[in-house]
Amino acid sequence: MKRKWLAAAALSVAVLSGGRAAAAGPLVVDGAVLDTADTYVYQNTTYVPFRAVTEALRPDAQVAWERGQAVARAEDLSLSAQPGASYIEANGRALYAPTGVYSSQGSTLVPVRVLAAALGAQVDWEPASGTVTVTGGSGAIAPAGERYPEQDLYWLSRIISAESKGESLEGQIAVGNVILNRVASPEFPNKVYDVIFDARWGGQFAPVKNGTIYDAPSDSSILAAKLCLEGANTAGNSLYFLAPALAGNLWTMEERTYVTTIGTHWFYR
To answer: How far is CA 225 from CA 158, 159, 258, in A?
Structure first.
């Protein structure tokens, strides 16, 4: 009976998301099996109920539903997950959940590894039985102020906003990926600010030339910058991007290797 209910819950989510889901194996949190937890696998990602796992790992936390999202608060923890989003927020940080956050049967369902990261926990999977084991660690994730270098977040959010604030979150992350890929590449400067303001060949980015780099960034661009600094990647190893409909110089298209297209931007390495 329990397994049938799990399958029904998974199916309802799959219909909403346009994909297929399957019931997962047992869920064990800090040595206890959560008998009432509806877990399922979607796009090779195990989903677990936000409330059940958070309360099991952090019995001191207050878990509630507020303004269309699940929230949890404790002395060292501020956590939220909104169905339909592709991330969860934890102590001011944004943790990427590319397969999404969903709601089913009154539960908010999140990728287990993303939730575990927010709560400082470890996840193990036993292939034979499908058992997912979550073990609590040293505490909640470090806050944003300790994770994001202030100047990197400041300038990364501004270049993302100036170049792509009309794009999807995926497209905005991709623009940020290009900046961070350049930071990591020996072909370019090794700091975010220096990459953006690199003056070679007359400058690298139009917003630096026209001054829009100094405009206040959109909320979505700040979010995209945080996700990039957490490691979210939608542009692979791209080092260049352009919007062909607006570009006056097509050198990138002619000389570099194509990677992907997201929204109006084409990405190259």
So the answer is: 9, 9, 23
Place of tokens 């943790």: 95
Report pLDDT digits (tens) over 74-111. Answer: 999 999 999 999 999 999 999 999 999 999 888 999 99
117: which 2 tokens? 């990261």
Cα–Cα distance for residue pair 222/227, rounded to 1 Å = 9
Strand partners, 62: 73
Q: Answer whether 140's CB lies under 8 Å from 91's CB.
A: yes
Contact 13, 107 (CB under 8 A): no
Q: pTM higher than 0.85 for the full model?
A: yes
pLDDT in tens, 144-161: 999 999 999 999 999 999
The number of C-alpha atoms within 13 Å of 204 and in the hemisphere containing its C-beta is: 18
Query: How deeply is 143 buried, as exposed, middle or buried, from its count of CB atoms within 10 A (0-12, 13-18, 19+)?
Result: middle
The 3-state DSSP composition of the chain as helix, strand, coil percent (nearest 5) reads 35, 25, 40
State the Cα–Cα distance between residues 74 and 121, nearest whole angstrom: 16
Question: Would you give the end-to-end CA distance of the chain in angstroms?
Answer: 52
Exposure string over 166-177, b if 16+ CB within 10 A, otherwise e? ebebbbbbbbbb
State the Cα–Cα distance between residues 255 and 269, nearest whole angstrom: 10
SS in 3 state form for 113-159? HHHHHHCCCEEEEECCCCEEEEECCCCCCCCHHHHCCHHHHHHHHHH
